[in-house]
Amino acid sequence: MSQDGSRERRRKKNVFLAWPLIRKLESLAFLAMFIAVPFFGYRVVDYTSRHLALNNAAHDLVKDIRKAKQMATELGIDISVESRQSTEGRSAAYVIRSGQRTLEEVVLPQGVSMIGEITFSKAGEPDHPATFDVHMDTRSVAIDIDRSGIVSLP
Question: pLDDT digits over 12-63, tens only?
């Protein structure tokens, strides 16, 4: 009976020795997850904010192209919407102008740029079909204006 009793005590002692190690491993795993989650969260927030900046810039451009078309018919003058690339000290933008006179300049969010130009006649019709390419990093959005002046954003 003394051998069985000592065996049971050793078994119980080994079981109780394992619990502190298990608790330490649990704590280490929890700490690793607690540290790792913000890094993934930052990536998601960064991607989402860039995506929203691109989409908002494209939607603002569509509204301003429609506004330029309406202004051309109401005022009876030719109105152009032109992109302007970023230069040293100036962000990328697009400009709404009549001849040499600038009516409005819209500065794009950091990292967003665009290429394109369209001119609306006094009748509100474009001089030719056009496409504006709004891009940021590897993503881009194309805004098409057909011959009748209808603006579409896919």
Answer: 555 555 778 888 889 999 999 888 888 888 888 988 999 999 999 999 999 9
Total count of domains within the chain: 1
CA 106-101-60 angle, to 5 degrees, is: 20
Contact (Cβ atoms closer than 8 angstroms) between residue 143 and residue 129: no
Q: Is the CB of residue 117 less than 8 Å from the CB of residue 131?
A: no
CATH of the domain at 25: 3.55.40.10
Distance in angstroms (rounded) separating the CA atoms of residues 116 and 71: 19
**Positive or negative torsion for Cα 54, 60, 64, 70:** positive
Residues in the chain: 154
> Which residues does 122 contact at the CB level (< 8 Å), separation at least 6?
72, 73, 76, 77, 78
Angle, vertex CA 82, rays to CA 138 and CA 122, nearest 5: 140
The residue segments making up the domain with residue 82 are 1-154
Name which of 41, 64, 45, 49 is nearest 114 in CA terms.
64
- Number of Cβ within 10 Å of residue 150's Cβ equals 12
Please give the Cα distance from 51 to 131 (Å, whole number).
Answer: 20
CB 82 within 8 A of CB 94: yes
